[in-house]
DNA sequence: ACTATATAGTTAGGGCCCTAACGACCGTCC
DNA sequence: GGACGGTCGTTAGGGCCCTAACTATATAGT
């Protein structure tokens, strides 16, 4: 995810330029990037990456599953899951076993050590999320979440039409 | 930037859990990720990465500058700039020359080929940004941008207090 | 002058993400 | 029971991002 700088004259350079739309897109990416970076820094002392933390959470909440299913939930390719699980396995937070029902497949499950680190991770992140969002009144927070949902729908839909 | 899945019972797992705050953070990252991914796909046929496109834009709008300054504007480390500029230079979109005023430094500038690809890139992206954001009424778009700014301020400030 | 400190750009090493291609295996249809 | 199309996980190769360390050069202070 790239960091952003908005040149003063970024707009009005093309027929379709729209200041507010560009600003919204850029700011969204910029804000997410800031949040993601903070989260990654908070997790570093725990020896987990942000992606690894998500995987641990899914495994704890949904139980053991195949790398493919994990990829589906993370919205990430199977190839990417291979790498993240490799890393978690090296640290002993996760275990891979063959799937008796399908000899092509594997089953990934969280270990006791993984459960411990997951609890620490969630405590830490939830505390900070609360602080970060405390500048927004309850109503505004709700509107914000709703707007994000509408943007997601819009982008997903637009992508379906070939262009 | 990781993709997100929100487990049904992600909340109330820690003393400080706050559903709305978590949801806002997750959704922000998720939305940005979606946008970033679409942009990267749009740019692929042009043979430019999203980061590369940003660099070209900065160089065109602000003129030639050192890799360090470029890093400052992108909010990225010098080491990262080395890689992005390497890639842009391989494609002929950018040129590195020694800085006569400081023998440690370099000056990066955009080439004619870079200008061509930049114009195509902006036309393409601006058209899509407009479409993506067209679901939001003008007032809501303004509120959204304002909320993003407040979150950024909040996160930046919170980070300054040691924790 | 000379040394101590700071800065420029690079490299090395690690993480995450993607696409493409591969071997192994599944299931189905003839 | 064999052939085929689909899926599983992995690897190879490319891109971006970071931190730490290194070389070369600049500059401030003695």
Overall description:
The structure is a homodimer of 163-residue chains. The model of chain A is unreliable at 2-12 (pLDDT under 50). The two termini of chain A are 24 Å apart. In chain A, helix 2 (50-62) crosses helix 5. In chain A, 64% of the residues lie in helices and 6% in strands. Chain A is mainly alpha-helical. Chain A has helices spanning 19-43, 50-62, 67-74, 78-90, 112-133, 138-160, and strands spanning 94-98, 106-110. Chain A is globular. Chain A has a single domain, classed as Orthogonal Bundle (Arc Repressor Mutant, subunit A), CATH 1.10.10.10. Chain A binds a DNA duplex (30 and 30 nucleotides) through residues 1-3, 37, 40, 49-52, 66-68, 76-84, 87, 99, 102-106.
Sheet having the most strands of chain A? 2 strands, antiparallel
Order of helices and strands of chain A: HHHHEEHH
Show unreliable segments of chain A.
Answer: 2-12
The CATH topology name of chain A reads Arc Repressor Mutant, subunit A
Under the CATH scheme, which class of chain A?
Mainly Alpha
The count of β-strands of chain A is 2
Tell me the name of the CATH homologous superfamily of chain A.
Winged helix-like DNA-binding domain superfamily/Winged helix DNA-binding domain
Number of helices of chain A: 6
Integer-rounded radius of gyration of chain A:
20 Å
Kindly report the spatial arrangement of strands forming the biggest sheet of chain A.
Answer: 1-2
Number of domains of chain A: 1
Shape of chain A: globular
SS-based class of chain A: mainly alpha
């Amino acid at each position: 995810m790239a960091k952003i700088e908005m040149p003063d004259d970024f707009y009005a350079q093309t027929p379709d330029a729209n200041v507010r739309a560009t600003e919204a897109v850029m700011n969204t990416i910029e804000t997410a990037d800031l949040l993601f970076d903070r989260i990654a820094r908070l997790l570093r002392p725990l020896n987990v990456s942000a992606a690894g933390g998500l995987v641990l959470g899914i495994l704890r909440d949904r139980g053991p599953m195949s790398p493919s299913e994990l990829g589906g939930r993370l919205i990430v390719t199977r190839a990417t899951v291979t790498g993240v699980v490799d890393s978690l396995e090296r640290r002993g937070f996760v275990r891979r076993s063959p799937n008796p029902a399908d000899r092509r497949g594997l089953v990934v499950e969280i270990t006791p050590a993984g459960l411990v680190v997951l609890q620490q991770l969630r405590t830490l992140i939830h505390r900070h999320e609360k602080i970060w969002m405390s500048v927004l009144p309850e109503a505004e927070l709700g509107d914000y979440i709703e707007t994000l949902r509408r943007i997601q729908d819009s982008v997903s839909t637009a992508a379906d039409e070939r262009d």
